[in-house]
Amino acid sequence: MEKLTIIVPCYNEEEVLDDFYHEVKRVTESLESLETELLFIDDGSKDGTLSKLRALQEQDRSVSYLAFSRNFGKESAMYAGLKQAKGDYCVIMDADLQHPPALLPQMVQAVREEGYDCCAGLRQDRHGEGKLRSLFSRTFYKVIQKMSHMEMADGAGDYRLMSRQMVEAILSCQEYNRYMKGIFSFVGFETKWLPFENVERAAGQTKWSLRSLFGYALDGILSFSTTPITIAAVMGVILFVLSLVYGIGTGVHTLLYGNQVSGYTTIVCLVLFLNGIQLLVMSILGAYISKNYMESKQRPIYIVKERSAGAK
Ligand code: UDP
Ligand code: MG
């Protein structure tokens, strides 16, 4: 019988785990001729998540878990899950029920019967999300689409069911700085989109502050685009042309009217402006170099401290 692995990254999710488990079980029981396993990844939770997982695993052998030695982030948890999963199909789901389990049967059908490699949920709106956060996210998606030439739609999250072939392709992307939305797009394959309404978290709190989202956005751009370097180059060319025009203009003016020493303000402005641009360009280069530095260390993407019986 074919197998579906449901991968659930969890970071401090003790409040929702039981609801999540029951909701998912209710749906998977209706899936015919498909065995399902639930694979939880405890991403270094500080609350009772791990003991909840141990208890679930005791009572249900289709549950297994990995527990990280500390919080490595959702990207690492997803990678660990995909690597550990044994299923012919894998689906990644948030523990907070924001990824409606009710979509699972349609997703399975799309990949199993309709010939897609992947079926992904597409969140329709940002209902219940802060205004500033929404604005920031929407702008980010516009920018990264332009810069990376990859398809990364706003609302296309990590809720997807994938064929084994696509999972293997994702696992072959071994980078340390992982940006899953980009990797999904990078590996290609044919994806069916299933629109769904945004729902608020069932319980507990979001793990994302505005600041961490900003860092995540920056990581995404640095991982999938070198456009910032091109922008730096274009700025250099523009400044060069401007200085040439200014130089020639001043030269002609001096020849015609003689040299008058003035322009203190101009000099101060130019010095500040050019130094500013130089620092900006250096920091862009620095950002890429620091990413490269982290890659070159080849550190593990995650470290496991505990595995359940089913996840060996
Ligand atoms: N998550 C994780 N590690 C982290 C942060 C989050 O495994 O460092 C998990 C979290 O437990 C949840 C999912 O990733 O299952 C999505 O997180 P969250 O709901 O906080 O994000 P949001 O839905 O607000 O974007
Ligand atoms: Mg959530």
How does this structure look, described?
This protein is α/β, with parallel strands linked by helices. The chain has 2 domains: 2-209 and 301-307, Alpha-Beta Complex (Spore Coat Polysaccharide Biosynthesis Protein SpsA, Chain A); 227-297. It has helices at 14-28, 49-59, 74-84, 104-112, 131-148, 164-171, 180-187, 210-224, 227-257, 264-297; strands spanning 2-10, 34-42, 63-68, 89-92, 118-123, 156-163, 191-196, 304-307. An 8-stranded mixed β-sheet has the order 7-5-6-4-1-2-3-8, sandwiched between helices. Helix 2 links the parallel strand 2 and strand 3. The mean pLDDT is 89. The structure holds uridine-5'-diphosphate (UDP) and magnesium ion. Uridine-5'-diphosphate (UDP) binds at residues 9-11, 13, 43, 71, 73-74, 77, 94-96, 98, 206-208. The site of magnesium ion (MG) has 5 residues, from loops.
In terms of topology, how is this protein built?
Layout: E1 2-10, H1 14-28, E2 34-42, H2 49-59, E3 63-68, H3 74-84, E4 89-92, H4 104-112, E5 118-123, H5 131-148, E6 156-163, H6 164-171, H7 180-187, E7 191-196, H8 210-224, H9 227-257, H10 264-297, E8 304-307
Parallel strand pairs: 1-2, 1-4, 2-3, 5-7
Antiparallel strand pairs: 3-8, 4-6, 5-6
Helix pairs in contact: 1-2, 5-8, 9-10
Magnesium ion is lined by residues 94, 96, 98, 201, 206.
